[in-house]
Amino acid sequence: MDAQGRGRADEIDPADQWVLNPRTGNYELRLDRSAAHQQRTPVTTPRPRRAPAAPGGSPSGPATGVPGPRRGETPPGGGRRGGSRKRGKAGKGGGKGGGRKKALAVSGGTLAFLLVGGSVAGYLYYRHLNGNLQVIDTAGAGSGGFRKGQPINILVIGTDKRTGAGNQGYGDKDSKGHADTTILFHVSKDRTNATAVSIPRDLITDIPDCPTKQEDGSTKTVPGERGVRFNTSLGQAGRDPGCTMRTVKQLTGIEVDHFMMADFNAVKTLSTAVGGVPVCLGKPVNDEKSKLNLPAGEHRLKGEEALAFVRTRHAFGNESDLDRIKTQQAFLGSMMREMKSKETLTSPKKFLSLAEAATKALSVDSGIGSIAKLTDLAGEVKGLNPKNVTFTTLPVLDNPAEKIKATVVVNQALAQPLLSMIREDVSLTEVEQKEKAAADAAKAQQDALLQGNRAQPADVRVEVFNGGGPQGSASTTLNWLQNTKGVSRASNQGNAPAKLEHTTLEYAPNQADQARALADMMGLPSSALKIGTVDAAPKAPMKLTLGADFKGAGISLTAPQQLPQDVPQNQADKAVCVK
Prior knowledge:
alpha/beta; 13 helices; 5-stranded mixed sheet
């Protein structure tokens, strides 16, 4: 079975193929297809087996049970199947049949671990993994949790905090940890594709006020700042990962569901756990600062050498942080391929190593702060194929306010199409033909709303409300409509009674020609048009409410179907030779 076939044909998972050999009393790995379907005679008196030792500990003695049978089988004597017990409610996140033995991979290796099922030993190890996680209460930052059938947005944060053995010489010795590497990982609502957007650490942006939870349970608001580096959204002035989540939402218009944060140790331990990450160098490298010293060609890096590879700034490109981002994306794509490979999926040793490495390396928000919750999340993203995972970087320009260029600002002309595609859940890759056809059919159905006659601008009547756009949006939109577009019968109604995430235009059936005309002018997607059921009076206005996705008058809200050519991207299934 190849890695992409995992969990598809007959729902057979490599991790589920450890079966009891009745002749020896031992569990053995069977990968051939016939063994996957073979009926086995229940054994009621298997040879006693010792439970696996928790990492760093000693064996816990004979197990009181044996790992449960695979899917579709009934345990001898009936009763519960092995692997269904975990902290909290049982039965969630395990896939069909309640199986728990799943390999999880999120954001190219930021999260990867094995959920161990079977008897007391598996349950104790399950609790052990829970204890590895560090959980942070972000005081309401984010959406409150991902939802099935909706896109998922996870903020992956790499901090330069000097925690862990051997890391004292890295990063800023006086730092409490900046947001040194930040990736917004967007998973489509149909779970067929994902986009990973790197946010440059030296981007100049505004940081909003940030409520943070204190040790005594109280909440303290850290004042925001204007015109500062993005990486100061974490660790500085008492800011926690929730502050970075709030900053990303303000910057992109995309609400983050969860965060996952790791330090230098994550790269070292995860790369070691998979047996090394393959990389390709287009030229020899000898970087004194990162200590990376390798000849040109292909290498398999782990531990300190892997960390040196992702940290180096002076070995590749123009020696900038933007080129280091490209190196990091190549590394993460390779790690994702390695974790989804057959060699990793069928190796118990690698499974257990990944479980330890990932859970020890991660800090997460309380919304995914347990193995059970992470299992639910992993169940949503486990089917992602690397060919449909796109890495890109938020487009930026050199800061025009600086003579000596050290920071960057958002390139709005290129960034807005990218962010609009993510907000509208448009894939940056070609998904399977069947899925694409279904998406095209849905789009055609929506586009039908915009077909038909258009009213003249002077005949368009609309009330404009600000329901979450930038301050003064209703006023500036009114001026733009009247003075630029000739919509003389528009009026400013100030703030809407409630905040909206998305801009909406409410209209009656007999106002459809006006709605189409206004949608054309403003670049409103068909999803923004909300038609009523009763005709309006002859001079009644439509209602336009500017949501949090509104960026300014004249800036289209309709997502393009392709990125501008000047926005670099690469898919996770393609090996990149850095140089």
